[in-house]
Design goal:
The complex is a heterodimer of chains A (211) and B (300).
Chain A: H1 4-9, H2 12-30, H3 38-41, H4 52-63, H5 66-69, H6 78-84, H7 120-128, H8 130-133, H9 155-164, H10 172-183, H11 191-201
Chain B: H1 3-26, H2 32-36, E1 39-44, E2 47-50, H3 56-75, H4 90-114, H5 117-120, H6 124-137, H7 139-142, H8 166-175, E3 177-181, H9 192-206, H10 214-223, H11 228-234, H12 260-269, E4 271-275, H13 284-297
Helix pairs in contact in B: 1-3, 4-13, 6-13, 8-13, 9-10, 9-12
The chains are: A mainly alpha (211), B mainly alpha (300).
């Protein structure tokens, strides 16, 4: 044994392999079992898949980088549950691809924003000009969203991918019904309509479970 | 967690600890040939690499971390399904925290609930507690200074759409309000000129001086008989109707803007403003304190 460390220290390839083995233990113990735990792989009973409009809004949310400043993860700390609502559980996010938990709160957490007593009108005015309503806000304005119509060209494929690759339980009829609305009442929907619909959907799965 | 995964996690954690201890102690002593020479044999530019045993304090720190992990795993969750002797979890910690704070605050809120809003607003605690509730629930529309924004009423000016009594304020917060004005363009005459005339008339109610201009005076005169349709909600004297949330038009306070263009837009398109109900997010006791805070904002 005694001198074997010299072998490792003088053989950089072997050292890399052993380092990778050493650091993988944490992931093997902490991450790998989660793929087989019900709490992390099964949706909570009240969860429902996004409508096409909400899905489009979610794409706008990602494109505009909302998740860079807003988290969607209420931690089990009293100050957070007091301010935002119930803490987030893993079963709420099993259909999120990619998840939008975020890691930095320049703005408030949005995981429960759909449960807040905030009107749709407020969301629209606030997206167009945040400082008109909250003078001390440093959120950028997104006035163009009200003029841009949603690009629906990829939505049928998006829903298929969520259904087939990610296992979100859309039935074929669901997708047909959503695409009928896309061709009908939502055909001229603006990106602002979509984003507001998405924001108002956040947290709805937990509405029934509120105390 | 199934038996398999519990065992799997325990195995990895224990093997890691044992492995670390083994690596540490197996490399503790130097071989005889290492002790014979003071250097490792590396030499570069005449600089030689010395070979020394681990400093003792460093070794003890390493042993300490091993002991710490053992103590930690006994007390806290880490070994599969074994939850640790302290039975700690992030959820139980949250529950304790919430229960502890509730134990402090419930008696206070109970005490506040017995005090009528008209008195409670003067309590210094109302400033603190109500202020926090206001910041979290009301400030995003009414502003952190409660002075409102376009379309969202100023709460500090003692001008009330639905009444400034304690009861009216509490009802507004708890049940919400929906202020509606229908589009009135057709009712006031239909033409752009008719809308402009009525806007000037409404503006002149709080700013009579604008009638000094003869063309404005002419507009006001044309619009005056048509104000009857507005009076249904805003009253014959234009002082509003708090039962409907119809604003007083004579006091110079403008919810949707004071410019002539704003008033014309209001007449032409109507307005629909919602104050959402808050009974789902705030308990009765908290609503009481919040109402007292809002009541106090416009008290002298």
């Amino acid at each position: 044994m005694a001198n074997h460390h010299a072998v490792i220290e003088k053989n950089i390839g072997l050292m890399i392999v052993l380092i990778l083995v050493a650091v993988s233990f944490g992931g093997l113990a902490e991450i790998v079992p989660l793929f087989w735990q019900k709490a992390t792989t099964e949706p909570i009973s009240t969860l429902r898949p996004y409508s096409a409009l909400e899905m489009a809004g979610r794409d706008v949310y990602i494109r505009e980088g909302c998740h860079v400043c807003h988290t969607q993860m209420v931690r089990p700390l009293r100050a957070e549950t007091e301010r935002f609502g119930d803490y987030t559980v893993a079963g709420e996010d099993v259909w999120e691809h990619p998840f939008l938990w975020g890691s930095k709160r320049t703005g408030p957490d949005l995981d429960r924003v759909g449960l807040r007593p905030i009107t749709e009108q407020w969301h629209r005015e606030h997206l167009r000009d945040p400082r008109a309503l909250v003078p001390e806000s440093n959120m950028p304005a997104y006035p163009w969203l009200q003029h841009a119509t949603v690009d629906w060209s990829t939505m049928a494929r998006t829903l298929k991918v969520f259904q087939q690759q990610f296992g979100v339980p859309y039935s074929d009829q669901d997708i047909e019904a959503q695409m009928a609305k896309v061709g009908g009442e939502w055909a001229d929907a603006t990106e602002e309509d979509a984003l507001v619909a998405y924001l108002l959907s956040l947290g709805q799965a937990r509405r029934e479970q509120r105390p | 967690m199934s038996d398999f995964w519990s065992f799997y996690i325990i195995a990895i954690v224990v093997l890691n600890l044992v492995g670390c201890a083994f690596l540490l102690f197996a490399n503790l002593r130097m071989t005889p040939e290492e002790t014979r020479s003071e250097t490792t044999g590396h030499s570069f530019d005449g600089i030689q690499e010395r070979n020394q045993p681990l400093p003792r304090w460093w070794l003890y720190l390493f042993v300490l971390t091993l002991l710490f992990s053992v103590v930690y795993l006994v007390l806290y969750p880490g070994l599969g399904r074994f939850g640790g002797l302290l039975n700690w979890s992030s959820v139980s910690q949250w529950q304790e925290e919430v229960a502890w704070v509730n134990k402090q605050t419930e008696p206070l809120f109970e005490q506040f609930a017995k005090v009528p809003i008209e008195e409670l607003h003067a309590y210094p605690e109302t400033r603190d507690v109500g202020g926090r509730l206001f910041a979290n629930n009301c400030a995003l529309c009414h502003g952190s200074d409660a002075r409102g924004a376009k379309g969202y009423p100023n709460l500090t000016d003692d001008d009330w759409l639905y009444g400034g009594s304690a009861e009216a304020i509490l009802t507004s917060i708890r049940d919400g309000r929906h202020g509606q004005m229908p589009p009135m363009a057709a009712a006031v005459g239909g033409t752009d000129q008719a809308v402009r005339d009525m806007a000037l008339y409404v503006q002149s109610l709080s700013r009579p001086a604008i009638k000094d201009k003869p063309e404005v005076a002419a507009s006001v005169e044309r619009a005056a008989p048509r104000f009857a349709v507005c009076a249904a909600c805003h009253g014959q004297d234009a002082r509003g109707n708090q039962a409907l949330g119809a604003p007083n038009l004579t006091d110079g306070v403008w919810l949707h803007g004071a410019r002539l263009e704003d008033i014309e837009t209001t007449i032409r398109e109507g307005r629909s403003s919602r104050m959402p109900p808050h009974e789902s997010v705030l308990s009765e006791e908290r609503l009481h304190v919040l109402a007292a805070y809002v009541y106090g904002l416009s008290q002298p």
